[in-house]
Fold this protein.
Amino acid sequence: MWEMARMAQSPIERMMNEIRVGFHTLVEAYETVHRAEEITVGMRAVLEFVDREGPRTVPDIARSRRVSRQHIQTLANPLEERGLVEFVENPAHRRSPLVALTVPGANLIARMRAREAEFLKSIRLRSSSRDFETATEILRSFREDLIAGIRDQHAREGD
């Protein structure tokens, strides 16, 4: 019976389900690979973002991740307490400091990436690099379409 329900889903619905299930599988893989670090997936995302983009404000990070400022603040605070990031003066806005990666934070994210690369090498992937590039472009395009749809919905509702 459930197979009929699955078949009744449109291709986009099946893809959205794969994204949801895939996200949780990525979290499980992350937790397996980084068991000893005591860094959550969200904390890792903040470290990675600041490593890639440089010092940014909490609201900047939140906008880029499409989450609330409060959510990012709850991730940045323990990172700061552990000495992995620091809050530095922001010349553009006195009340919104920049979240900057510290040397220990940079070292940690480098170790985490190395562990992740080793993990990916250890599993047998059935898709080619070209397949992953295509999937990345499809997902990026889909995300952009969703964002436009969200904006349109807000406009229709007068938000």
